[in-house]
Amino acid sequence: MLELHLPWLELAILTPLVGVVVSLFNKNAEQTRLVAIVFSGLSLAMGIGAWEDFNTLKVFEAHDRWDLVEPLFGPDVVVIDEFNAPLLALTSLMFFLTPLATLRTKIKRFPFRMNLISQFLMLSTLACRGPWIIISLMGLQTLPIVWELRTRGKSSRGFVIHMGLFLVLLIGGWSMIDLEDPSHEHSIAAIMLLTLAILIRSGCAPMHCWMTDLFEKASLGSSLLFVSPMIGAYAAVRLLLPVAPDWAMRIVALASLFTAVYSAGMALVQTESRRFFCYLILSNASLVLVGLEVVTPIGLTGALSTWIAVCLSLSGFGLTLRAIESRVGRLSLNDYHGLYSQMPLLATFFLLTGVATVGFPGTVGFAGIELIVEGAVEVYPYVGMAVVIATALNGIAIMRVYFRLFTGTIYQSSFCMEARWPERVGILVLSALIIGGGIWPQPGVKSRFHAAKEIMSRRETHTQAETDKHATLSAIPDDDMIAPTKREQASHTLTVE
Amino acid sequence: MDLLYQILGITTVASPLVLLAVLGIPCLFSRPFSEQMIARTVYFCVWIGLFASVGILATMLISGDRHVPIELGHWIDLPEQHFHFHLKFVFDRLSVPFAILTFVLCGTIGAFTSRYLHREPGYVRFYIAFSLFMAGMIFASLAGTIEVLFFGWELVGISSALLIAFFHERRNPVRNGFMAWCVYRIADAAFLIAAVLMHHLTGAGDFELLMGQGAWPEGVATITHSQALLVGLLLVVAAAGKSALVPFSGWLPRAMEGPTSSSAIFYGALSVHLGAFLLLRISPILELSMWLSGTVVVLGLLTAIFATITGRAQSDIKTSLAYASLTQVGIIVVEIGLGLRYIALIHIVGHALMRTLQLLRAPSLLYDYHVLENAIDGHLPASGSRIGSLVPERWKQWCYLFAMERGFLDELLSRFIVRPFVRCFRCFDALERKWTNFLSGDSSRESDDVTTQPEIIEELKV
Lengths: 497, 462
What we know:
The complex is a heterodimer of chains A (497) and B (462).
Chain A (H helix, E strand, L loop, with lengths): L1 E2 L4 H16 L5 H29 L3 E3 L6 H4 L5 E3 L3 H16 L11 H16 L3 H21 L5 H23 L8 H15 L6 H9 L2 H8 L3 H10 L5 H24 L3 H21 L3 H32 L15 H14 L7 H15 L6 H21 L14 H19 L2 H33 L8 H14 L1
Parallel strand pairs in A: 1-2
Antiparallel strand pairs in A: 2-3
Chain B lengths: L1 H27 L6 H29 L3 E12 L4 E10 L2 H22 L6 H20 L3 H19 L6 H32 L4 H5 L13 H18 L8 H4 L5 H10 L1 H11 L1 H6 L1 H22 L5 H21 L3 H36 L16 H12 L4 H32 L22
Antiparallel strand pairs in B: 1-2
Helix pairs in contact in B: 1-2, 1-4, 2-3, 3-4, 3-10, 3-15, 4-5, 5-6, 6-8, 8-11, 8-13, 10-14, 10-15, 11-14, 11-15, 13-14, 13-16, 14-15
GO molecular function (chain B): NADH dehydrogenase (ubiquinone) activity; NADH dehydrogenase activity
Enzyme class (chain B): oxidoreductase
Subcellular location (chain B): Endomembrane system; Membrane
């Protein structure tokens, strides 16, 4: 495996941790915020550096030049490849923009230090390839959220039950896979445990209630940062996709398709903005899963493209909502608020990011959604149309909320409620990425296609290796006691393929 | 000659995009242009676009070319998967008149609005939506692939919803804008499914592959009858949504809540004809299936009859004109269904010009009527046909009720689609509440405590 020119990855991952240490010396909330912004910004710079460095190598994967964690965890634990390279930069961007866009009045409520820890855990998860390390990190990611809920005096039971179940299933499933003979097809029980775990973490209905509960009780920033990097989908690619047979993928795809439509419908009837946002994220994350699990190059390319688009646009959408909430409190959707006159820039950005999430032409989401529809229809000619229904419903829901928040009356205030300069920075950066990616989608789609091909080829290699072994076993004479079972398994594998 | 076509074609397509960028980017920095600067930019871009499109028409007439494709390469290209979005524009007998019509009417409306909305708080907002609309119309008119057409189609949709809700400090315009948006999204969903089906049938969204190589209207579709019926029906749903054909007619009179200038350009002139334009573009598909053509004719007839009955009972001038427009659109759709393509095209152009004039004249006409009535000290004599006197009284009453309720279309859609949908999902929401309460061991929804209006931070709030 080739090496990057510098240890960008480890620097990107460890910088937030250094930030945590530095922030321990600060008693002042304002200083802690500053530390969080500086170190998450540095981490973002390292993440972009890693991506750029990786691009110059023209390979599918690479690792850091001086692998600092190698003595601890073994070789090639922290790896950058075409799949995770943009995700690392994107996640860092979200973790940078969130504290940056936090108003001074809210700095005592927002857990900046925990935010840095979460960033460290998220980036570590995205950069690691070892299954057990990923599983451990996914477990650790839940702790800052539980801490926040407890600190706020909220019930964390719903969240803990779901995440506990997710971890138990994930650990159980992967333990079985580890214990099973890799030359055989994995047992149904192991695959089912893994599949269920992924469905819970991704919030597939009816196992999604932890997500709505989280948005109700935690701060909007923390909820956004926990959910929008789509770690459930990441686990699906790293853990499930290489080992799962087609039937398991279909279960996830159909469950996700159902969730996408269900959540879109739920988003339409919500009476409060945070819950609406939660269902919007859920619906879009489910669409990404649909694309991933149809396991065609087109579908996978669409899913990976939509992943980035959704991360960008929903982060922008969430930050806008957070900015509005910071000014006027939580927002009911039962009435009109008429905030446009007070914050036209935020209103415009709300609309831009909103339509980008539903793949509006000219925005970054368009190519991805088109490809997902294409991929889904290819595999499920009729059911795949549900993707279009989900996006249509999401589009209606977004416009409804836009009208409810920004129009219908005049909200008068004698002071300026428009975006402050740090918020403007965020808005301009995200707008440029959303519109730029929409006008010139080819580089992004091409890079995602390469990643999709590699993911497909790994999956095929894995399946092919199994098939070859079964073919060899089928040559064993009939009087061998083990042979009939092996032959049955081989024939099953071939049928599934 | 090719280079000339290329330059003129790109200029035609680029001018509305440049306008959008020039007006939109300063707003992102909260530094919008002055009114005068906006008006000048609009005039400049519209003139450039108009000159280029007329230039291309002149060149085509001189050279005798009837079909000029302008290839801008692949927008998205995955050659290994044979998947590509082709950025292609076509100048032919259908698209060129439509593009010129767009520039002429947008220029007229642009000039009218610079005075009509002078010193209005939403002046900049109007022109941004207007430039979005113009870009959408030009893209849709000149589209050589279904993806480009979809691109333009969506831009027209969102700008339309925003302009209906232009006076957004009042609730009614906002509600009406939202309703139009809902219908558009349904139409867009049908359109997107049709686009995906086209990709599957022909491997690309290129109209030439689907409708043969011949210049419009002489192309011959290359798909089977059943495929034509499926794709065609989806596109008919899309067209019905955009052109407010039955049963989606409810949004059109509501759309008149917007400023007169946007009403004129959208619902009298361009946007309302976009569905008919789509049907003209896919007319080789219509020819393949008798059932499809029949559906289009019936849809057009129903729309024309519905609109003419309903329009007679409307009490305000813009709504009456909206229904008058719809009647004509219905007739145009019938013409398309019957295969009278050139007649339909001429009808569209003529109707768009006349209706724009009528709608722009509407506010001052009412003023003039008042002046005349003051002068003669009484009402002006009633005009109109005497056919009504031949209709039995009971029928008249029923027709009046039908017209006043606008064909009960809104009520039907609401009762059989919207309300069951909302009720169903509210039921799911209630179930989720119980489940999360059970898991949390307490009331799980803080959002229940959120007040309808945000916290009053000042007494100035209205």
